[in-house]
Structure formats: C-alpha cells, structure tokens
Amino acid sequence: MAAPSIPSHVKAWVYSEYGSAVDVLKLDQNVAVPHVKEDQVLVKVVAASLNPVDSKRMRGFLKATDTPFPVRHSSHLSPVIVPGYDVAGVVVKVGSQVKNFEVGDEVYGDIIEKALDQPRQFGSLAEYTAVEEKLLALKPKNLSFVEAASLPLAIQTAYQGLEKTGFSAGKSILVLGGAGGVGTLVIQLAKHVCGASKVAATASTAKLELLKSLGADLAIDYTKENFEDLPEKFDVVYDAVGQSDRAVKAVKEGGQALKIVPETPTTPIFVLTSNGSSLEKLKPYLESGKVKPLIEPKGHFPFSKTVEAFSYLDTNRATGKVIVYPIP
C-alpha cells in the first residue's frame, strides 16, 4: 500500500496548566505531528475514549509522577500536553524497527504504558499520534473503531487485575462499580472467560438489569443495601469505585480485595501496565462476542466537543465508556 500523505501539523486538544477541562483544555489547530521513533508507528486517529485517569491527570491529581510540562526546545515538542490514553485508528507510517504492523493496518491500544508513571506528553486526542508498536494490537474485525477505542485501558485493567488476584474457575467475585467502564468488563471476564462460580456487582437502581445482562448473578442496589452487610462473602472484591474500607469487609477469609481507584494521592492501588499482547490474548473473546464493549448511550461526542465529553465523564454517571468520534 502506498504511504498516505501526512501533514506536518494537525489539530489536537492541549493543555498547558492543570485544571478542569472547561478551564484549561483548548483546541490547537497547528500542532506538529509527533516524530516517529524506530519502534513506533504513526496512527491516524479515528476514535478515542476517555477514562477517569485522563481527567485526574489534567486536574493535577497525578502531579507527583506526571511528565513535567515540556519546554519549547525542539520542533517536535511544544509546552503543552495532549491528553488521551485510548486510541483506535489506522497505521500511516512505521518506524525502522517495527515488525508486526504495516501501513493500512487497523489498530487499537492504550498508548500510555505506565498509566501513572511519567505518562507521555502526546496522547490520543489529536488527528495523528505516534505509538510504540508493543502497545498496540490489530483491531478485532467485528468491532467498529468506536467500539475498539472504548476498550484498551478498561479491558486491560479488568483482565490484569483479575490475573493479579489469581482469579480462576469456581471462585466468587464482587464487583464494586459494576456499571462503569472497568466494572462492566470485570463482570463479563469473570463470568464468561474465567468461569466464576458467582458474580455479584453493585450499581444504582436503574442499572441493575444491565448488570444481570452482562453476567452478574447478584445485582446489588447500593442506594438500598450495604454490600458489606450481606451474609455472603467473596473470594475477590474488585473495587472500581474507591471504597477499600468497606470492600475488605466483604472478602472471605483467604480472599483479597483489589482496588484501582486512589482515595487519596498516596493510596496504594493496582496500576495497569499497558501492552498489546494483553489485547491479543483477549481477541478471541471479543471476536466471539463473549465479551462486549459497552458505550454510554449519551457518551458520543465529536472531536469539536471534547471539552463537553470530559464534563460528562466528570459527572461519574456514565454507563460504560465516553467516546470522542469522529476525529477529523
């Protein structure tokens, strides 16, 4: 395939100081396309999804370990950060050492390897972005770009978190925040991939039927019940909301609670290490439909409305993922 024409400058959402999206996030019409290193590919971004970590980073919650705002000292760096972890798009250029992808490949991934440790300056909320080959996988053919963009960070967090607890067939699990981006995938993976003996999950009243449709055996209305007061205890409690003091009370003797949401900046949590091999491992379950992406019905925002997308994300009411699409 002939290499497509690549512009030198593109549109990207940027910020140069910490704060909420409505205050600091700006659309820059003239951002230099990132330089492609030998182990990277350049991706024409088709869709991106937002994660709570995007908002936390922008607000300065990760300041202690964040990449410092760059200093303008080369043609490839500007003193701004382009946010965005999740991407789906098409490869338009490959570095000299890239072996697994070629121009024209449809790919997806979480492009920030260490979610909280010096995350990259140039993320996915741009028309083009450069990504290390090892962080990407070929998009499952049955998924749209929007569906693929909704998955990488959330499904890898769900899957690697379950792996960390040693979760396996015959064990029981309670998922706190079962209707969120990660929780919806933990339920499906635990039930349909790991072979859980029982899956329980919490959500608000209106979302209980959704939990059951995803595979939950027990849907708990957190507005009416305290899950820690239930007589039944669980091998694993997967805390996707940040209720660790309560979560440990629902764990069986010998079981464990895993938390992914810091309640304070110093709270120890499970942190994802992104890699394309995790996505490749999960590909059969996505292609067979055992595991399905879930996108918030009100969560589709065009590129020009990215600030509004962040504002919706920050309400914490999304069921599944918030998506930015189309990207010009």
Automatic annotation (TrEMBL):
SUPFAM superfamilies: GroES-like, NAD(P)-binding Rossmann-fold domains. The keyword NAD applies. It holds the Pfam family ADH_zinc_N_2. Gene3D superfamilies: Medium-chain alcohol dehydrogenases, catalytic domain, NAD(P)-binding Rossmann-like Domain. It comes from Carpinus fangiana. InterPro entries: ADH-like_N, AOR-like, ER, GroES-like_sf, NAD(P)-bd_dom_sf, Quin_OxRdtase/zeta-crystal_CS. Belongs to the zinc-containing alcohol dehydrogenase family. Quinone oxidoreductase subfamily. Keywords: NAD, Oxidoreductase. Residues 20-324 form the Enoyl reductase (ER) domain. This is Enoyl reductase (ER) domain-containing protein. One of its GO terms (molecular function) is zinc ion binding.
